[in-house]
Design goal:
Order of helices and strands: HHHH
Radius of gyration: 22 Å
Number of domains: 1
Number of strands: 0
Shape: elongated
Structural class: mainly alpha
Mean pLDDT: 85
Number of helices: 4
Distance between the termini: 18 Å
Strand content: under 5%
Low-confidence stretches: none
Helix content: over 70%
């Protein structure tokens, strides 16, 4: 087993529940969602596609657009946090399985 795996195993054993509700990963996901929202705003109001800009200006309220961007950003933040935690948990379970396999083979 690698040294990195041992360190991660010790870290995740102590901090898995704390990481599940971490605000740091939520903020990273939130900033990613806002970056996507800024991209949507720039694409809408830059005149890149004139017909879409006309439709957006005539039928869409700017408040609805900002609320939608806020909701999308929060959704991305929550999903990012869950995804990050699941990836770490999967790595932990793989290390546990590797340890169990090594212990089983050393008994034979």
């Amino acid at each position: 087993m690698q040294l990195d795996d041992e360190q991660f195993f010790d870290y995740w054993t102590k901090n898995s529940l704390k990481q599940k509700n971490s605000s740091r990963t939520f903020l990273i996901g939130l900033s990613s969602g806002f970056a996507i929202g800024v991209g949507v705003i720039v694409a809408t109001f830059s005149g890149w596609f004139p017909r879409a800009t006309m439709v957006a200006n005539s039928k869409m309220s700017s408040i609805v657009l900002f609320v939608a961007i806020l909701l999308i950003s929060v959704f991305i933040a929550i999903m990012y946090r869950k995804f990050k935690w699941e990836m770490q948990e999967q790595r932990f379970l793989e290390i546990v399985a590797k340890k169990n396999k090594q212990q089983g083979s050393s008994l034979i």
